[in-house]
Structure formats: C-alpha cells, structure tokens
C-alpha cells in the first residue's frame, strides 16, 4: 500500500501550490474561494502525512514513527506561527491551546481508540513497558515545564515566562526530546520495536500450514481482509521514497502558506459562532493529527500496539519538545505576549491524563477497559473546550 504513489497523492502538492499562488495576499470572504483554500489545506495536510509514511516505511522502525512525528510537528508549528503572526485576541494563547490539545488528543483520544480497536479484535494487547514508560516520563516532564510552571512563576505578569525563563524552557525541551530520540533510535532501540504476538491457540492455529506449504496454500495471516498483510509489505524503492520526500516538502510549504492566507477567516468564523478561542487550537491539533491517528489505529488492528504508542507518544513529545523552542524563538518578532500557563481546569485534565496513562502502561498489557477510560476522558476534554 505504501510502496506506490497513487494519483491523488502526487496531484495534491502542486495543486495546493497553485491555490496558494492564486490566493496569496487576497482577503478571503465566506464564499467559494475560502472553501477552495480550506479543501486545499486539508488535502495538503493529508498528503504530507502520507508521503511521510512512505519515507517512514522505507527507513523502518523506530525511525519511521520519528519521521512521522516530526512531519506532523512541522505542520503544527507552521499553522501556529502563521495564525499568531496575524494577531487577534487569541494569538497570545494559541500555542498553549494547540499544544495542550495535542497532548490530550494523543494521550486520550489516539491511545484510547487504539486500545479499543486492538482489544476488541485481540482481547488483550501487549507492548514494551520500558519504551512506553520512558516516553511517558519524558512527556510528563515536558508538559509540566512548558504548560504548568508558567502559571506559577512570578518574574512576569500572567501565565507567562520571562525571557530568560522562556529561553531555559526551550533549551530544556530540546535536551529532553533529543535525549529521548537518541534512546529510541540508538541506545535502546529494542525497547521501541513491536511486540511479536503469540501464535493463536486452537484448531485454526494447529491447522495453519507452515514453511513451503504455507507458501503454496497462502497463510491466513497474510489475508488482506485480515489487515495484517501490510506488516510484511515490501518497503518502497529508494526512488519512490525520494519522490515522496520532495512532495512532502512541497506539501509543508503549501500548508504553511494556505494557513497564513486563511487565518483571518478562521478567526472571524470562531468569533461569529461565539466559540471560545481555545477551539482554534483544538481544531489545529485535530487537523494535523487526523492522518497519523488513522495510521496508529491501523497498527492497533494488526495487534501492533507498540507501533501505535510510538506514533501517539512520539507525536505528543515532538509537539511539545519542538513546538515550544520554535515558538520561543518566533516570539522575538511575533506581536504580543506568549501565554503558556494552563488554567485550573486544564491542569486537572492534564493531571488525570498522566495518572490514567501511567496506570494503563505500567503492566505492559491492556484490555477494553483502559481504552474506554481514555476515550471518556477525551470526550470530557472536548466537551469542556466547547462549553467551558
């Protein structure tokens, strides 16, 4: 599936660039032009993540999930910076709202959905405790440093960091994320490799052909309807991966430019429906994480929960570990203050999420119950974001 480039995936990047060139500098109304920009923006995001998946499949695990996480974070940062540069009442808190939303979506929505899908199909799912708990510990430290501490510091007014504090937070975030990447890809790479599922017991397993007989008869495990054939799909060629890398870069340029073009209309639309400003951050996080969520759920359906967690927690880590330093640098020329500290309601939701996720991953196995708990917490986050 990932070894060939389908037509729409090749056509979307140049078409998005054409739309960007045709609308750059124009004031968008509420008509056909705005709808065209919105469709091109969503399509460019989906195509970007697909091309990142092609490159990721070429390099293999765990580097593949790292590439996906970084690609999604680049899109997220581009959207945040473009919207913040447009100013507006919600510009100061946009980075905080988006990063917090990404944290909640990943740790509750994506993980919960993966656990639910995996448990419904395989009853009990397994993953490597060493890798998942290490990622969660790093994520908890990053979230506390970037989103909790600014609400309690006294060097500057409001939920903000002073310039030295913001610089320290940015450097510390890079150190934590860089160390995690080193551990994931070099030092303890085996902690993040998928757990091979045990052979199923029962008559079907006993009757399954092996060796040459399996080659002749066709192994049921490779049945496309079962969804596991992708696990053994041949990686794309170097030429296909290089083509996807080029199209990925084109998509990223298109996404950032289209976000800049559409930002005034987005702000006006949120104000028109009377929604809280935080909804903009939630919408950005949902948009950029939607394709990656689909990839994580597909892995869960194939009983590859470790891959799902690599995608989910890696995205959250990149979202905080790379977004905060980038926004800290961008704040030098961005208008207005940069509010990072969460309010009491958001702190409670984050604390509950950390506790629930810790209890979920500690045993190395999970069932349907853990998936439902995470999803209900995610629904509570969405509900309170719209009706604070």
Automatic annotation (TrEMBL):
<feature type="transmembrane region" description="Helical">
    <location>
        <begin position="311"/>
        <end position="335"/>
    </location>
</feature>
<feature type="transmembrane region" description="Helical">
    <location>
        <begin position="371"/>
        <end position="387"/>
    </location>
</feature>
<feature type="domain" description="Sodium/calcium exchanger membrane region">
    <location>
        <begin position="32"/>
        <end position="185"/>
    </location>
</feature>
<dbReference type="GO" id="GO:0015386">
    <property type="term" value="F:potassium:proton antiporter activity"/>
</dbReference>
<feature type="transmembrane region" description="Helical">
    <location>
        <begin position="31"/>
        <end position="51"/>
    </location>
</feature>
<feature type="transmembrane region" description="Helical">
    <location>
        <begin position="63"/>
        <end position="87"/>
    </location>
</feature>
<keyword id="KW-0812">Transmembrane</keyword>
<keyword id="KW-0472">Membrane</keyword>
<protein>
    <submittedName>
        <fullName>Ionic transporter y4hA</fullName>
    </submittedName>
</protein>
<feature type="domain" description="Sodium/calcium exchanger membrane region">
    <location>
        <begin position="244"/>
        <end position="385"/>
    </location>
</feature>
<feature type="transmembrane region" description="Helical">
    <location>
        <begin position="165"/>
        <end position="183"/>
    </location>
</feature>
<feature type="transmembrane region" description="Helical">
    <location>
        <begin position="347"/>
        <end position="364"/>
    </location>
</feature>
<feature type="compositionally biased region" description="Low complexity">
    <location>
        <begin position="200"/>
        <end position="215"/>
    </location>
</feature>
<dbReference type="InterPro" id="IPR052946">
    <property type="entry name" value="Alkaline_pH_Ca-Antiporter"/>
</dbReference>
<feature type="transmembrane region" description="Helical">
    <location>
        <begin position="271"/>
        <end position="290"/>
    </location>
</feature>
<dbReference type="GO" id="GO:0015385">
    <property type="term" value="F:sodium:proton antiporter activity"/>
</dbReference>
<dbReference type="GO" id="GO:0005886">
    <property type="term" value="C:plasma membrane"/>
</dbReference>
<feature type="transmembrane region" description="Helical">
    <location>
        <begin position="240"/>
        <end position="259"/>
    </location>
</feature>
<feature type="region of interest" description="Disordered">
    <location>
        <begin position="200"/>
        <end position="236"/>
    </location>
</feature>
<keyword id="KW-1133">Transmembrane helix</keyword>
<feature type="transmembrane region" description="Helical">
    <location>
        <begin position="99"/>
        <end position="120"/>
    </location>
</feature>
<feature type="transmembrane region" description="Helical">
    <location>
        <begin position="132"/>
        <end position="153"/>
    </location>
</feature>
<dbReference type="InterPro" id="IPR004837">
    <property type="entry name" value="NaCa_Exmemb"/>
</dbReference>
<dbReference type="Pfam" id="PF01699">
    <property type="entry name" value="Na_Ca_ex"/>
</dbReference>
């Amino acid at each position: 599936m990932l070894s060939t480039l389908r037509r729409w995936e090749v056509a979307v990047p140049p078409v998005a660039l054409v739309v960007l060139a045709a609308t750059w500098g124009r004031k968008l109304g509420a008509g056909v032009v705005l709808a065209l920009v919105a469709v091109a923006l969503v399509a460019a995001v989906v195509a970007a993540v697909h091309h990142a998946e092609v490159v990721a499949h070429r390099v293999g695990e765990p580097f593949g999930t790292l590439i996906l996480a970084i690609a999604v974070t680049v899109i997220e940062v581009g959207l945040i910076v473009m919207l913040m540069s447009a100013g507006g009442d919600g510009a100061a808190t946009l980075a905080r709202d988006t990063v917090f939303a990404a944290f909640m979506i990943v740790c509750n929505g994506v993980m919960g959905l993966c656990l639910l899908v995996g448990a419904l199909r395989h009853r009990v799912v397994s993953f490597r405790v060493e890798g998942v708990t290490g990622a969660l510990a790093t994520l908890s430290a990053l979230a506390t440093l970037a989103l909790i501490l600014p609400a309690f510091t006294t060097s500057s007014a409001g939920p903000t960091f002073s310039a030295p504090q913001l610089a320290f937070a940015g450097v510390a975030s890079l150190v934590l994320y860089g160390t995690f990447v080193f551990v994931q890809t070099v030092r303890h790479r085996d902690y993040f490799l998928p757990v091979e599922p045990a052979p199923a017991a029962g008559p079907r397993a006993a009757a399954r052909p092996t060796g040459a007989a399996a080659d002749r008869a066709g192994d049921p495990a490779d049945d496309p309807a079962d969804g596991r054939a992708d696990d053994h799909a041949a990686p794309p060629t170097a030429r296909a991966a290089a083509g996807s890398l080029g199209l990925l870069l084109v998509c990223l340029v298109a996404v950032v430019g289209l976000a800049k073009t559409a930002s005034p209309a987005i702000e006006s639309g949120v104000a028109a429906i009377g929604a809280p400003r935080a909804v903009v951050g939630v919408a950005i996080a949902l948009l950029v994480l939607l394709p990656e969520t689909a990839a994580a759920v597909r892995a869960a359906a194939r009983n590859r929960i470790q891959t799902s967690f690599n995608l989910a927690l890696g995205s959250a880590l990149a979202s905080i570990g790379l977004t905060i330093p980038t926004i800290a640098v961008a704040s030098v020329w961005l208008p207005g203050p940069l509010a990072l500290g969460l309010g009491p309601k958001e702190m409670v939701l984050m604390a509950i999420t950390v506790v629930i996720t810790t209890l979920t991953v500690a045993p190395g196995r999970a069932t349907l119950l853990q998936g439902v708990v995470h999803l209900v917490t995610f629904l509570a986050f969405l509900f309170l974001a719209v009706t604070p």
